[in-house]
Amino acid sequence: MAINMGSTYRILGYQPSVNSAWRQKLLTMGMLPGAVIEVIRVAPMGDPVQISTRR
Fold first, then answer.
1. What does the pLDDT look like over 3-43, one tens digit per residue?
2. 18 part of a folded domain
């Protein structure tokens, strides 16, 4: 999946195969199912990615 600067995405949910600790960290940061995230900035090699979340 390509992540494009300036694009918005909606989190539909998490697959059961996602590590529970990793899922909990994302949920704590506000990346809840139904949340909309906007990609603010992407580093030249693709990592890290700066995002903004809103529900």
1. 888 999 999 999 999 999 999 999 998 899 999 999 999 99
2. yes
To which H or E segment does residue 53 belong?
A: strand 49-54
Domain annotation covers residue 26 = yes
In which domain, by residue range, is 19 found? 8-54
Q: How far is CA 16 from CA 5, 7, 12, 23, in A?
A: 28, 26, 13, 10
Angle, CA of 33, 36 and 40, to the nearest 5°: 135
Whichever domain contains 48, its CATH number is: 2.30.30.90
